[in-house]
Amino acid sequence: MMKGRMDYASAGVDLEKAERAKEGLRELLESTRDENTLSELGLFGGLYRVPGEVGEPVLVSSADGVGTKLKVAFLTGVHDTVGQDLVNHCVNDILVQGARPLFFLDYLATGEVAEGVVEEVVRGVALACRENRCALLGGETAQMPDFYGPGEYDLAGFIVGIVARAQILDGSRIQAGDALVALPSSGLHTNGYTLARKIVFDRAGLGVGDPFPGLDESVGAALLRIHRSYLPALQEELTWSGLTGLAHITGGGIPGNLPRVLPDGLGAVVRRGSWDVPPLFETLAELGEVEEGEMFRVFNMGVGMLATVRPDEADALVGRLRERGESAWIAGEVVEGAGVRLD
């Protein structure tokens, strides 16, 4: 039987370390403040003024995590990119309803992690918040050494955005004949990592420092490519009458996500030949002997966002996006029926 005086530190929770980490985060949070931020780090709740320039404002919220992509961060020792993944994913999830972000909260639960890891993770969160013009209003960091293994942590985020009620994108204006305009992903984003890790590490026997087959980057770098935000590309289009809907292509791929924004009685045809599937996905399919249908069901396959657009406006949208340096193309159309067919 253990004897002697016990305290929280001997049980695995270092309060002094937690306080040092909190102080290290203060500057990061301050860097994301804007004119509507009314609170500072340390209060029980974050305060944010609802902007007054939006007519009949509607708040849009979402919560998400990074999933088992965190396992790759643990293996590589690179911890700042997953924070960016988290924010960008949440930004995209409210963007598809026409909302721009107001503020963000993060939750970071850790086991026993090296000094500085918490700050590195939150540094990525703060960077993405600044890039998306979103205040990092606060969050929670919990030490849970009996729950997470040494060096492990979990990360979740909560976002609140705003949209004028008349400009909400709810899919109700989508019609048969609308074109599908695709924007590319930067990689796997934050989905499909359980399968991807099994293929790369278990089946192929590769390490994070090994070259990724067919790519000029390491396995770790390829798997940690940052989930991109589509706010910079699409924010000017959110109030455009030709835009009828947006679908963020996350877990479930195109077949699982595009139907979420389509009204009852409508489906879509996606022309598989309208883009070249990036080598990252082709290599995963080859190494894992994964059938094409399963690849499209699990991964985004190079398409991170789909916009439904009035057919006579689709070419104009593609042209505007390309003028801004964005890659975009017409990938199919909305049709009568149900589900998504890959042609």
Quick structural summary:
By secondary structure, the protein is α+β, with helices and mostly antiparallel strands.
Tell me what you see in this structure.
The chain is of the alpha+beta class and 343 residues long. The protein has two domains: 15-167, 60s Ribosomal Protein L30, Chain: A (2-Layer Sandwich), CATH 3.30.1330; 179-342, Phosphoribosyl-aminoimidazole Synthetase, Chain A, domain 2 (Alpha-Beta Complex), CATH 3.90.650. The protein has helices at residues 15-30, 69-76, 80-95, 117-131, 193-203, 219-223, 231-234, 253-257, 279-288, 292-298, 314-323; strands at 57-65, 100-110, 135-143, 153-164, 179-184, 243-248, 266-270, 303-309, 329-336, 340-342. Helix 4 (117-131) links the parallel strand 2 and strand 3. Helix 3 runs parallel beside helix 4. The protein starts with 14 loop residues before the first helix and ends with a strand.
What's the mean pLDDT score?
92
- Count of discrete structural domains: 2
Measured by DSSP, the beta-strand proportion falls in: 15-25%
Question: What is the class of the largest domain in the CATH system?
Answer: Alpha Beta
Output the radius of gyration.
Answer: 22 Å
Helix content: 25-40%
Secondary structure tally: strands: 10
Largest sheet: 6 strands, mixed
CATH superfamily placement of the largest domain: PurM-like C-terminal domain
The coarse silhouette is globular
CATH architecture of the largest domain: Alpha-Beta Complex
